[in-house]
Automatic annotation (TrEMBL), chains A, B:
Chain ranges of the Aminotransferase class I/classII large domain: 73-438
The protein's name in its UniProt record: Aminotransferase class I/classII large domain-containing protein
Keyword Transferase attached: yes
UniProt keyword annotations, A-Z: Aminotransferase, Pyridoxal phosphate, Signal, Transferase
Signal peptide: 1-16
InterPro entries to which the protein is assigned, alphabetical: Aminotransferase_I/II_large, DapL/ALD1, PyrdxlP-dep_Trfase, PyrdxlP-dep_Trfase_major, PyrdxlP-dep_Trfase_small
Family in the record: Belongs to the class-I pyridoxal-phosphate-dependent aminotransferase family. LL-diaminopimelate aminotransferase subfamily.
CDD domains: AAT_like (cd00609)
Biological processes per GO annotation: systemic acquired resistance, salicylic acid mediated signaling pathway
Pfam families recorded: Aminotran_1_2 (PF00155)
């Protein structure tokens, strides 16, 4: 009988893989008696691990087998920012930390929904005249907010997701018990409405032709496809959600990458959205805050459940009971982001990543692939030729041939099969080097 | 028909009450059609708001009616730290922020369960030889971790709580759908095991005489009673949980206040605890990180659900899917806390608050009240004479007579009725001033 599990640990991002030593229990257990608590059956439904740690695991395994390649690996995988935080925004963070050492500047618990200053600034700078400060909930990030939204929605709702999509929508729906088991043939969970998004429909879901759902998750600019929805598309989606009585959860985490006209940066630019939509957003990609952790969610006062309860009230209960506010240091950084100097710095940062996206697009096109996204988004979505096999095979082949880490489209749901996602968040020289290797290996 | 809700906003802690302007929607809605999504019925079961915002609301209301008292209010209410972060620990936070501005020091997404350095340091400094780094999950705080544990446990478990207790255990159980409706007579939710903790049983629950629960929440040193469980009591509790197949969730957030011998600082000092216990912990009270946000949860590899699944695996899934790691800046501060210089600073801080607790104890005793806690804990729990009425009445009377904010015991569950909690986290001069006023008003 094994005394300890010695689980291997996957470190995402750039950190190294460091397996832990098995533990020597203080008093050797005579048996590994399981407690009498049943495992939550919803967790048994989850297949495999969360996508990004799995990418890290495969990268690590490759490096264990090929340690000489360690310095050659370039990540175009997880959408993780790599450029330092610019000066003005940094001064906000440093100042936020420093003042905690003074009697006047010290602060403890704040409002669980965020500092009023920051809520007002988000409302004023990003949603002027559309959203009030009280409708903005500041948090530690969009991913965490999606879980908190699910917590509020509960087990009885039916969710609709774009296929492919950011895995958190589906995984949290499964955890909450909204779904049935996964179908081993389609690789889809029962009780989730999968809305195909392919090159044929411009990667925008045709919700009208799908069964009604209570909650519709829509991400634009999209992760992973890089598609940015037009105003026309969003008008139609809001109209549909209104007609069908659905709540639209709009994930706008990549909004600052939008440079095209007629591509809304917020769902609340669409008339009527205040009656049906929630917007989830984040400073992660705005200002390189992926590790700093700051986001927000907007819930308009208009939005109500069928019994008339404002959705905002229940979300406020989740925030105050199950969350304790984003770090006061980090919120000080958020305030700096939204000053004019901070906004300028953000523009420069985004320009840099958009430049990377352009290089990736042009490279993959020059190889002869069909390429999507990467214009108003940091992700380039590449259609793989059938000769590459499935997208996990292509991921592995590219890793082995070029030491470039990508993300297989299938990792974002069955609809992503046959595609590869490239992230533009790497440093410029790495992007250029990766492109040269890809050209050599794939042409 | 009202067009906007103009919800009033309660700001906890020292911040001011700032009601928001009602919003003017961009396009006046012609109707406030509710969406067709049913409200999660578990949220309808929750009675009232979360406790601490409610305290803030009453304080605010009092000040609106008595604006001349604004500068006289002293809070012995919410357990919110007030002393600046000491120099060495602060340098960890400032350094953690500053280095994000450099190419070499920048970091994005980290492991969702925390930086390996910090996990190792927590294991080494606080659980040496008992707990391995891989069993430590770093987070943004104990409150948030309790919700994530509930997320993992799911809707089907029965929870047992101390009565009175920190409200988050019960509220999150209700949110998860583990409970029935509240009983308007007992003020207890159906399907929760309330374990009375009163002066008669030394505020330690007699779990053996209660129905079996899947999950037993135990907080020591206790919030709100200030009782610190002895080794003997914890040995018995671990034994009972093992016999009954319960998981013990041990909330050790106030452990650094323990100065007495034979009072364990961690449940893992108890033999066999690795088979049955989870420990939730936090830097909030260690180092004044209430606003900074850093905590951790320990899940030993030994702990398994009835089907043999390691509990740690499912918690890792929650952390990686529904959380994105504590802020890298804040984790740098956590590392500093656990250096020798940081640990010394923490001791000095805790001494200061324990000094406050002593003053509060002695004052309330001198008035003639029965007083509990405040020795190995920052909370003093005062038995109210019947002449004061219920604990909410006493709260109100004391606020009006002395402008001292306390917390009524009933806010922590029906078992807290007849008691008042005083927090030792105020500045020393405020504590002394509050005590003088209480003596005058209550003698």
């Amino acid at each position: 009988m094994k005394l300890s599990l010695a689980l291997s640990f996957v470190v995402t991002g750039a950190s190294a893989f460091v397996p832990q030593q098995p533990l020597t229990p203080r008093s050797p257990a005579t048996s590994l008696a399981a407690v009498g608590v049943e495992r939550n059956p919803n967790f048994a439904k989850l297949i495999g691990g969360y996508l990004f740690p799995e990418i890290g695991r495969r990268r690590t395994q490759y490096l264990e087998e090929n340690p000489e390649m360690k310095d050659r690996v370039i990540s175009l995988g997880i959408g993780d920012t790599t450029q330092p935080i610019p000066e003005y925004i940094l001064s906000g963070l440093v100042g936020g930390a420093s003042k905690l050492g003074t009697k006047e500047g010290y602060s403890g618990y704040g409002n669980e929904a965020g500092m009023l200053d920051l809520r007002e600034k988000i409302a004023d700078k990003l949603y002027k005249g559309i959203i009030a400060a009280e409708e903005v909930f500041v948090s530690d990030g969009a991913k965490c907010d999606i879980m908190r939204l699910q917590q509020m929605f509960g087990a009885k709702v039916i969710s609709a997701v774009q296929d492919p999509s950011y895995p958190v929508y589906v995984d949290t729906s499964v955890m909450m018990g909204q779904t049935g088991e996964i179908d081993s043939e389609t690789n889809q969970y029962k009780n989730i409405v999968y809305m195909p998004c392919t090159s044929e429909n411009g990667f925008f879901p045709d919700y009208a032709s799908m069964p009604r759902a209570d909650i519709v998750y829509l991400c634009s600019p999209n992760n992973p496809t890089g598609a940015a929805a037009t105003k026309e598309q969003l008008v139609e989606m809001v109209k549909l959600c209104k007609e069908r009585g659905s709540i639209l959860v709009f994930d706008a985490a990549y909004a600052p990458f939008i440079r095209s006209k007629d591509v809304p940066k917020s769902i609340f630019e669409i008339e009527g959205a205040r009656d049906v939509a929630i917007e989830v957003n984040s400073f992660s990609k705005y200002a390189g805050f992926t590790g700093v952790r700051l986001g927000w969610t907007v819930i308009p006062n208009n939005l109500k459940f069928a019994d008339g309860t404002p959705v905002r009230n229940d979300f406020n209960r989740v925030m105050s009971t199950a969350f304790n506010g984003a770090s006061n240091i980090v919120q000080a950084g958020g305030l700096a982001c939204l000053d004019d100097d901070g906004l300028k710095e953000i523009d420069t940062l985004i320009d840099y990543y958009l430049g990377n996206a352009k290089i990736l697009r042009e490279t993959m096109e020059s190889i002869g692939y069909d390429v999507y996204g990467g214009i108003d988004a940091p992700y380039v979505f590449v259609k793989l030729p059938e000769s590459m096999g499935g997208s996990w095979d292509a991921f592995q082949t590219i890793l082995e041939k070029t030491q470039v880490v990508t993300i297989p489209g299938a990792g974002f749901g069955p609809g992503g099969e046959g595609y590869l996602r490239l992230s533009a968040f790497a440093p410029r020289d790495s992007v250029i080097e990766a492109c040269e290797r890809l050209k050599k290996a794939l042409v």
